Amino acid sequence: MALRSLLAQECTLPDRVYFYDTTLRDGEQTPGVALLAEEKLEIARQLDALGVDSIEAGFPATSKGEQEAARLIAGAGLKAEVSALARSIQKDIDLALSCNVGCVHTFIATSDIHLKKKLGMSREEVVQRAVESVEYVKAHGLKCEFSAEDATRTDPDFLIDIYEAVVKAGADRIDIPDTVGVAVPRAFFHLVRNVTERIKVPVALHCHDDMGLAVANSLAGVEAGAQELHVTVNGIGERAGNASLEELALSLYALYGVRTGINLKEIYETSRLVSKLTGVVIAPNKSVVGDNAFAHESGIHTDGIISSPDTYEPLPPEIVGHERKLVAGKHAGKHGIDAMLKEMGLILTKSQLDEIVGRVKDLGDKGRAVTETDLFHIFEAVTKSTAPEKRRIELSDLVVVTGSKTTPTATLKLLIDGKEYKASEFGIGPIDAALKAIQNVVGDVTKFKLVDFKLEAITGGSDALANVTVKLMDNKRRTVSAKGVREDIVMAGVEAVINAANRLLLLNSLTERTSA
Amino acid sequence: MALRSLLAQECTLPDRVYFYDTTLRDGEQTPGVALLAEEKLEIARQLDALGVDSIEAGFPATSKGEQEAARLIAGAGLKAEVSALARSIQKDIDLALSCNVGCVHTFIATSDIHLKKKLGMSREEVVQRAVESVEYVKAHGLKCEFSAEDATRTDPDFLIDIYEAVVKAGADRIDIPDTVGVAVPRAFFHLVRNVTERIKVPVALHCHDDMGLAVANSLAGVEAGAQELHVTVNGIGERAGNASLEELALSLYALYGVRTGINLKEIYETSRLVSKLTGVVIAPNKSVVGDNAFAHESGIHTDGIISSPDTYEPLPPEIVGHERKLVAGKHAGKHGIDAMLKEMGLILTKSQLDEIVGRVKDLGDKGRAVTETDLFHIFEAVTKSTAPEKRRIELSDLVVVTGSKTTPTATLKLLIDGKEYKASEFGIGPIDAALKAIQNVVGDVTKFKLVDFKLEAITGGSDALANVTVKLMDNKRRTVSAKGVREDIVMAGVEAVINAANRLLLLNSLTERTSA
Prior knowledge:
Shape of chain A: elongated
Oligomer: homodimer
Distance between the termini of chain A: 51 Å
Strand content of chain A: 15-25%
Number of strands of chain A: 18
Largest interface: A-B, 157 and 157 residues
Largest sheet of chain A: 8 strands, parallel, barrel
Strand order of the largest sheet of chain A: 1-2-3-4-5-6-7-8
Structural class of chain A: alpha/beta
Helix content of chain A: 40-55%
């Protein structure tokens, strides 16, 4: 491949790249995010299973809780090195030392902007403080990594001077942060190469994503001989965040063929855990871990995927523990929709298929995302003769009450195959109560449990549409999902569960018929 | 700057880069997205105001609605060129022509993988079809852009052959798509340079973001002389999406100093419109347009921002129509919290400030994101002598009823300054009804309107926490926001509005006192 020879010719690629994960430090600095010490520990254990080399557990000078979390992680017996951040100030370093970590990551700003406007210090003073700090850490027998904050806006000669000074003082590794995310790969490559040629300890990179270039800059730095990458899960962090662990791990593996300690299969799981605990949502189009990263709707793409996934996927989703998804919709072609129906166990004639594809496109033209449930109902309508004509479960009546002094309660009547069932349940909220009442009634006909409940974010007014997706699993471990879209959040949740329960029943009867 | 001389030395940068926006075609192919023709037109008008050079309005062969939308946009009198996609098939091109667009973008796959596994065609057949298609478009007097699908996995010599053939046939521009997102900037630069040196029409790039490198690859291609970039707003599109318009526009402006037609100030607005109409959420850490792209919480960063924003921001947020946000939280330092309180009109003594900072950090250590309302309450508690001691509005009782045959209704009792008020209202959902009832009662004391209601996505079970943020505006056009977090969605919404209303009242009385 062309890249291999280019890399050999133009680059000084290291044998192995080390991942220094700062999800718990720079990632937690994401505005609005705050993790409990136990949550930090849970993430740290997962990062250890993922195989990162170092875990930056926190910035102890921030707060007592931050110190407690760092101490907890340092004492958890992880394989990864546990590190803590400290300004080049003795008080900060003492707090880091008190957490019993294995490494102190100490930093001071080196750009003229920061020297003048933030620190009010001369270059000489900055070097002196950096050197004293490194010596202080090393005097305590710990590993020490030194960062020159805002390195990419620092005079390149001064940058080399301060790195040389701290290495002489005993720094084990030096780090080049692109603090405000203004580096460009082509220039960053030269900046990093200048450092790796002059500085004889491992060089780390810490890139921010303000222009969307954090991953590319990190890779350009690896091409220039950097051996360590500062990363965060899902690319969270200050402002637009840090370089994303998952994108770097995958591209080093798949494109560069460089060794890392990352167990790729744990990537998806790690991503979901961090999103859940930090509350930072993952956009569906997020590379590697987004919901759509391996999803296909358009006809040309699903056709390709069906004949051979490598036509439209750079790598199979299983590599990172994710999964492939074919989606019905206006862009879907005949082959894709046929494959989706077949996966549900439904066999069609050519004319039935044409009719279904036409109706799917009509729905899409009306601005509707076509769910699997829609596809099912269209199938039902088009193949009337062989499929049951109506939904077996219908909501006949529902009343939900909640309030400040009221236990949320739902009372409902359902018709199942025309026969009326009633139930009343309370819950911790109105939706929870309603779902319990439905489960109570429908449980007699088909056993299922709710495995996922997802309410999409609502922005705008209190009268915006609520969009609920639920996933149910029956006792044969088959899952179905369905959606409810209403202006009333409670009704949207109820609609989704009833739609899904109907689909489960339909799936049973239809697969029996078409396979007969 | 080092980059400038590098670019002059190593690159062949064009004078101006043209933006070919495919939000309405590749962007709409995002699985699960479907836009109405009128919505597409609304986005097209905004793209025109933003200053893109070409708008790919759709893929007419997909559906009738797709044709209608393309026709609508082509006839809207926009400044931008309007283009439509067509496979290298006469039927597709005829449908594109029927939409009265100014340009047809025709494509055929050229990689061996696609030839063997998808098309079942030889290279010769592919070239013939490509040439015939271009000739057919040109015979109708339209502009024609040709894409060699999966170019980055195509034999480089064959790639040049087919481009030479279509240019000879009259193609006005040729496009290099990285269809499955496997390019690396260093290699892509050479691939593109090889094409720009050999092909004498403008060269376009169409990059996908599977490894997070779409933007970097596009920039590397520009360094190699490409003049046109295929982009989408918010980087939506197939799988992990396309190169993001906003990241490319900003980096070309700020880092490369290359001219484009983009009116940067319209970026934020455009991004929100596309997110609203497509339903594809923007992660808070999305570069340039995410909620946090210009937000700061940590003490070191807010300190810097307060003394000079360029310490921790690559560019001021106003450039793209976004805004700066300082956030209270465990990482916040003294200066940041002082600045936030001052912005609310509150002046403190040093010891009061120390006490407040300590309490903010304690809340953060408990895993709590600290909202402005929290900050307010802490201020209240710490400065007891000068501030009112309690909230003026308290919820005394609330009952909400909804259901399948019930109009959602809320009845509530509020205590305002200890006096009881009652109201009952109906709405389109239970939250809407409750908010109307609150507005009804509180409107007597202070005039406000609800300007934003945001419910964060809930994933997990129906018993997950609901997190509602509301923004209210009073008649002096001051806005406050507040949060409600409850297991009961309805109660979370009510709590948020009451918190915000209290803040409005508090803001009035406190600013009067401290400025006195």
